[in-house]
Amino acid sequence: xxxxxxxxxxxxxxxxxxxxxxxxxxxxxxxxxxxxxxxxxxxxxxxxxxxxxxxxxxxxxxxxxxxxxxxxxxxxxxxxxxxxxxxxxxxxxxxxxxxxxxxxxxxxxxxxxxxxxxxxxxxxxxxxxxxxxxxxxxxxxxxxxxxxxxxxxxxxxxxxxxxxxxxxxxxxxxxxxxxxxxxxxxxxxxxxxxxxxxxxxxxxxxxxxxxxxxxxxxxxxxxxxxxxxxxxxxxxxxxxxxxxxxxxxxxxxxxxxxxxxxxxxx
Length: 266
Ligand code: F6R
Prior knowledge:
Bound molecules: fructose -6-phosphate
Strand order of the largest sheet: 1-10-9-6-2-3-5
Strand content: 15-25%
Order of helices and strands: EHEHEEHEHEEHEHEHEH
Distance between the termini: 14 Å
């Protein structure tokens, strides 16, 4: 594990990619119980939370900050990200609810809620480890194309691609997916001390290759991860299938001493 580079690990299947991410998180939580952990929602993360809960690791001293929340949904709406987190993680571990943070997408004053979110992250000492997924539009959080690479938490208009990607959770109709979200900015995300991006499935193959190996561009927010000094990208064969540097990534994973405990996943 190299603290000055991006590292790409291609796992044979989605199950092993998920287990590797859960194992990295569990190890980190055991060695640093007061971790400030950045969380993501979405289908890819569901199984990570299942494994994290099953590991029995304590969240008693953990503080969490989620990446984003839909605007206009009440916190207890079945499709809100607050509700997702309660269902998949918070209600299943020993975390203090006061230490869980999700942007207030139902706030009347969204700019104030965004500034408050940034302030809370700073007060917590910054995010130690941030979990990320990637959208088919290249977003991290809900940083859609043309998000400034210096952006902070703010409200953002979602792309048709993203609304289509998330339509299944809203009865299949993209128009039922809220059109805006309150999201950490790319700049906010880049300030986390460590980033872990997980992507699985063929639908992510092209955007993963563009983000990891393409030019850094605000058209693909995830390409900003190339600017981060400690970023792990963990994908399955399907999501990694368009990566040109595969041979080298596999060689690094097989040879870096720090990965020795995790080789079974590669
Ligand atoms: C969710 C988030 C998004 C998702 C991305 C992938 O909090 O920040 O960036 O990680 O849209 O979603 P899935 O996993 O559903 O494909």
